[in-house]
Task: inverse folding
């Protein structure tokens, strides 16, 4: 499918975001919590109080927050944290790579974003180049200089072992050309003797948000051109490159901000006995495959959790055309807020994490140690589905201008979406949400939704429903279709106007509205698009009759599950947004899981704009 | 060859001895910038990035770490007055001395103390050593790697999944990087007797550009890339004593041999003493002590021209 050009406004917006370097507000790569639309997390240091010590704040990408939190705790207790009669205290904060790059380039507001970092560790050093490029564009000096890459993990294609086996792997190396062939095969897995697995389905994160998604996009473009280095604008302009990309993207189930959404959904499908129906393959980091196979699909065992190995393990396929590493740099920032003591403390921390004992911990977490004195060993082994002797071919990171063009082109090549926005207009949405402005929850939700509409492509289809009790001329309806899904380029302004007009009304018939919206999307299912419902609600189900709540929920979950996987499935993903303190996050999570989507938590209504950005990243 | 040796000796003779005594060592390292010389008489040492670890032995000194190209340019430009000690290689000293001699306003270098010596070698990824031997007639060499640079392995006896033949080079702005570049050039010409006017367009230039392409402006940690980032290169220019213990690599000696002579240029006084601590740090890191007389390296002018060429082809 070739899309018409986006509006100039969108293009400008994209360029503003991308040319400066893959910028995306609220970016996430491999967050440890699939439910966390907001990737920013405190490290949760055991010793949270730095006392009189000089604080070395770290901003780290989410997939390594637990590892670095543990290392920081060890460092704070070590002799290395003492400089003369002073002490140093390392404090870890999770921050998505792209989001941190943007904050560092444009101004880091400590009120809303937490302390400014002394050490920055994005997932890949390309983000450092992005930051410096952005600063240079503004006439500012570079902030990310020489760095230490303290651990590595390559991008791989994760696939259930049985599926890889059906494709002849490992004797037959696989790559993006094979993904393309599978995506375009109308017989799907039947061509490989497994009609029960249905069509080939691919999981890929949004490259504007996710380092894994970006690396996969780069690898895909190289594969289309049969190159391993020197990807050029001219390469991207070839029709064959676009066709290759569109072919691969056509198999995508949905995008999203974090790979963990895929891994958690996949794991749940596995535990139900069928890991083959949700997705066939997902582009993730090698470390993620190890976590999954160890029974910890999101890479963090919460308190009381035990790892439960999957019934069907995954294997890491290192694309034969080549791949890229996430090199996890530690930048001691050349920033005006970093004083000499903090800098020295930071350098000591960088040295500390490279010590062999600490690099052994890196290995324990499934990363490849940066210190050459620590051998690559278990868990990077065949027993966990990965191969320490791979990858065989590395791809060159393209020039920033090529990366920007690649991302720009992706907006035209990605699988289009068909989304129904379902907004709660119950009375509680009129509650105050921001004392500083007097805005209500509905005010903030309206503003965020209107802003999010600009993130859809013109050719995406978006509709709008509202739900509350007492709707309609006879005041008995529980939901009201305002605009049926239509081409965004044609209805964007109308959608915005209808959203502006919304007012808070009555009860919260959540289950009935959700099921109706889902059935509506299912009845108009378009296999060439990502079909989804975005369900924003601030309350628990309340339709005036509590007797049938359980039955309604059961019906809803059964309906969602029935079509979400399998040979003839017509997956419609429901992405609930749990909005405000009163929302029923637990039930919303069940709704999301039943449709193999993800729930987004906006308990603080002021975060809703950022949350919406993350939700729309799925499309 | 005698002329070449004379040229080298001549270049070294350009090195002037300056005597400024500095002492006053206090606790804790600092890393002053070029304009923030310590006011308390602390010894200021500038170390090449390749020698940052060894320079930790300079207890009490204010140590600055930067590529030798940066230090060299500052000396030639006359903006390096704060430097007491420069830890680099004899190649950089020779290159700098030649430029100092022809540049008005430059800062005299100082006395040169040999610290340690090593050898440039090829580090070949173990899994590809046999294939590379087959490709290169039994002995991998710069010439063979450059001649085959960019060719698909599938066409030259390797696995299709290996991609193209790729070699890694370090950043020639650094101490070891310049020596590796000298080794590459010596490998191409088969000797060290070539001159700058032998760098004919579309011959050595193009060959070097193809060889250097995979590592762009130079790999900042080539050994780590070879060992930890499998698939990036098939081989790379490394220090023999660093590559030899690595099971992931096969170390191949090169002809003509290019030794890496680490030296300390003492510009300000005798704060370095006899360099014993520094020398010991190099020995601990696997270098051979001393350095003795300069070997038959490329002439200073050739080294400078080679470095300029490298900058051109990797730009």
Result:
């Amino acid at each position: 499918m070739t899309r018409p050009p986006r509006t100039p406004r969108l293009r400008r917006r994209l360029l503003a975001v991308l040319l400066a370097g893959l910028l995306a507000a609220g970016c996430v790569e491999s967050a440890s919590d699939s439910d966390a639309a907001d990737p920013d997390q405190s490290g949760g240091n055991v010793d949270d109080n730095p006392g009189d010590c000089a604080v070395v704040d770290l901003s780290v990408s989410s997939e390594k927050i637990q590892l670095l939190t543990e290392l920081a705790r060890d460092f704070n207790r070590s002799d290395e944290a003492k400089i003369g009669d002073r002490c140093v205290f390392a404090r870890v904060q999770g921050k998505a790579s792209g989001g941190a790059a943007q904050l560092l380039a444009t101004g880091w507001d400590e009120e809303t974003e937490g302390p400014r970092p002394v050490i920055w560790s994005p997932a890949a050093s390309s983000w450092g180049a992005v930051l410096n490029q952005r600063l240079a564009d503004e006439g500012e000096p570079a902030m990310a200089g020489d760095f230490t890459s303290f651990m590595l993990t390559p991008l791989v294609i994760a696939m259930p072992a049985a599926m890889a086996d059906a494709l002849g792997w490992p004797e037959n190396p696989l790559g993006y050309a094979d993904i393309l062939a599978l995506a375009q095969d109308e017989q799907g897995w039947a061509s490989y003797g497994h009609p029960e697995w249905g069509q080939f389905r691919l999981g890929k994160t949004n490259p504007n948000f996710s380092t894994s998604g970006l690396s996969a996009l780069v690898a895909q473009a190289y594969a289309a051109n049969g190159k391993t280095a020197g990807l050029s604008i001219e390469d991207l302009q070839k029709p064959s490159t676009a066709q290759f990309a569109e072919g691969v993207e056509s198999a995508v189930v949905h995008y999203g901000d974090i790979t963990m959404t895929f891994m958690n959904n996949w794991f749940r499908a596995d535990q139900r006995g069928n890991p083959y129906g949700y997705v066939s393959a997902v582009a993730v980091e090698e470390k993620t495959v190890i976590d999954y196979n160890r029974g910890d699909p999101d890479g963090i065992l919460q308190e009381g959790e035990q790892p439960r190995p999957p019934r069907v393990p995954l294997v890491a396929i290192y694309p034969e055309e080549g791949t890229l590493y996430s090199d996890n740099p530690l930048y001691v920032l050349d920033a005006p807020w970093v004083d000499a003591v903090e800098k020295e403390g930071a350098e000591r921390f960088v040295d500390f994490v490279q010590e062999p004992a600490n690099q052994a911990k890196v290995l324990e977490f499934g990363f490849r140690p940066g210190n050459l004195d620590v051998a690559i060993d278990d868990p990077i082994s065949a027993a966990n589905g990965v191969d320490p002797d791979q990858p065989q071919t590395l791809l060159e990171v393209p020039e920033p201008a090529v990366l920007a063009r690649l991302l720009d082109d992706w907006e035209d090549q990605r699988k289009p979406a068909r989304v129904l926005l379902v907004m709660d207009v119950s009375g509680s949405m009129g509650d105050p949400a921001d004392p500083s402005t007097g805005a209500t929850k509905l005010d903030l939700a309206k503003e965020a939704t209107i802003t999010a509409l600009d993130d859809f492509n013109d050719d995406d289809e978006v509709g709008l429903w509202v739900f509350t009790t007492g709707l309609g001329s006879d005041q008995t309806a529980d939901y009201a279709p305002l605009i049926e899904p239509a081409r965004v380029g044609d209805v964007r302004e109308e959608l915005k106007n209808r959203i502006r007009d919304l007012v808070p009304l009555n009860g919260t018939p959540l289950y009935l509205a959700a099921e109706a919206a889902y059935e509506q999307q299912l009845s108009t299912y378009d296999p060439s698009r990502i079909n989804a419902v975005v369900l924003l609600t601030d309350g628990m189900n309340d339709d005036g009759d509590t007797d049938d709540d359980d039955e309604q929920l059961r019906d809803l979950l059964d309906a969602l599950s029935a079509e979400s996987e399998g040979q003839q499935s017509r997956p419609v993903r429901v992405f609930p947004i749990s909005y405000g303190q009163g929302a029923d996050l637990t039930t919303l999570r069940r709704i999301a899981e039943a449709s193999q989507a993800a729930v987004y938590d906006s308990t603080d209504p002021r975060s809703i704009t950022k949350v919406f950005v993350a939700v729309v990243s799925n499309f | 060859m005698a002329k070449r040796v004379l040229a080298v000796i001549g270049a070294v003779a350009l090195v002037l001895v300056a005597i400024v005594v500095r002492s006053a060592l206090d606790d804790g390292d600092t890393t002053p910038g070029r304009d923030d010389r310590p006011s308390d008489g602390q010894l200021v040492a500038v170390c090449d990035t390749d020698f940052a670890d060894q320079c930790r032995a300079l207890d009490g000194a204010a140590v600055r770490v930067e590529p030798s190209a940066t230090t060299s340019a500052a000396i030639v430009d006359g903006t390096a007055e704060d430097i007491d000690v420069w830890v680099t290689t004899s190649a950089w000293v020779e290159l700098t001395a030649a430029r100092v001699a022809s540049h008005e306003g430059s800062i005299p270098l100082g006395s040169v103390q040999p610290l340690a010596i090593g050898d440039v070698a090829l580090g070949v990824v173990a899994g590809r050593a046999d294939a590379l031997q087959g490709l290169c007639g039994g002995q991998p060499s710069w010439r063979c790697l450059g001649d085959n640079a960019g060719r698909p392995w599938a066409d030259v006896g390797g696995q299709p999944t290996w991609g193209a033949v790729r070699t890694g080079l370090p950043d020639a702005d650094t101490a070891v990087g310049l020596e590796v570049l000298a080794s590459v050039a010596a490998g191409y010409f088969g000797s060290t007797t070539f001159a700058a006017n032998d760098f004919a367009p579309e011959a050595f230039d193009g060959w070097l550009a193809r060889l250097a392409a995979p590592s762009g402006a130079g790999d900042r940690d080539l050994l780590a890339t070879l060992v930890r980032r499998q698939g990036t290169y098939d081989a790379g220019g490394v220090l023999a004593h660093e590559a030899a213990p690595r099971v992931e690599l096969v170390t191949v000696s090169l002809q003509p041999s290019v030794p890496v002579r680490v030296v300390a240029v003492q510009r300000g006084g005798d704060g370095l003493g006899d360099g014993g601590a520094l020398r010991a740090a190099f020995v601990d890191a696997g270098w051979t002590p001393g350095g003795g007389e300069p070997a038959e390296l490329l002439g200073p002018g050739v080294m400078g021209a080679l470095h300029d060429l490298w900058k051109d082809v990797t730009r």
Observations:
- The two ends of chain A are 16 Å apart (CA to CA).
- Confidence is low (pLDDT under 50) at residues 1-40, 42-46 of chain A.
- The first helix of chain A runs from residue 8 to 18.
- The first strand of chain A starts at residue 41 and ends at 42.
